[in-house]
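Async update (no meeting this week)

Hi team, since we skipped the sync, here's where things stand on the single-chain job. The sequence we agreed to prioritize is pasted below, unchanged from the tracker. I ran it this morning and attached the output directly underneath so nobody has to dig for it. Comments welcome in thread, and please keep replies under the output.
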Amino acid sequence: MITKMASRYPSKVTVKFELPSAVWADSIHLVGDFEGYNETSHALVRDRRDGRWHVTLELERGREYQFRYLVNGREWHNDWHADKYVPHPYGEARSVVSTMPPSGRAQSRDAQSVST
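Output:
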């Protein structure tokens, strides 16, 4: 699941990336073009209460970011709740999260959380 929230910074959007507790892993990293596809910079943390995996980032408003999850350093997974998917030259598609304002309506910095 991807949850987008207003950031305290006007030029940013707070984005929470979350995977269910059913994902069996020792480690999961969020890898995307927001950090140069670094495979270790954004580790997801497992919640002790419900077992969900999550990481929260502040992303620039008005952009689209390609990403995937790297599980245990070797398995690539898409987020099936992404805003869209784009083909990748090496075969598998990549997930995309958008921080663009919703079309057809104005978006305020104080807008309520939007879940995609």
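Quick observations from my side:
The radius of gyration is 14 Å.
Residues 104-116 have pLDDT under 50 and may be disordered.
Reply here if anything looks off.
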